[in-house]
Amino acid sequence: MILSIYYLLIIFTVCPSGYKAENNTCVRCPFGYSGFNCDDSSLLALVVVACVLGGILLIVILAVLIYICVTRCNKKSSSNFSTARTLLRSSRPRGPLRASPVFHVSI
Q: What does UniProt give as the signal peptide span (predicted)?
């Protein structure tokens, strides 16, 4: 009996976490991916969620600042109105109205 044994030479490239094997070399994972063979995309999801929440927070802060500015401007203009009304009321005569004499000039 003739026993033929063929050996198949298989070369494995073992890469650390955060790297993947390409052409028998270890290459760093693209941004947002990690783990063995770059299969874990939780960092990418975290970056996307953080950007969305940061944008929402920025919009809310700007809306609050605009609201505060608008309400303060309205208070200032209404206080100017009340000051003008007070001045007009205090400058009116308190007694009964009298007709002022009218002078006619004839030529």
A: 1-21
pTM of the model: 0.50
How far apart are alpha carbons 63 and 57 in whole angstroms? Answer: 10
Which residues are CB-neighbours of 6 under 8 A, at least 6 positions away?
none
Give me the chain's average pLDDT, please.
77
Query: Using CA of residue 69, residue 71, residue 77, residue 80, what is the dihedral sign?
Result: negative
Beta bridge partners of 25: 22
- Rounded CA Rg of the chain: 42
Are 23 and 15 contacting, i.e. CB atoms less than 8 angstroms apart?
A: no
How does 90-99 read in b/e, with b if 16+ C-beta sit within 10 Å? Answer: eeeeeeeeee
Check residues 94 and 76 and name the one with the higher pLDDT.
76
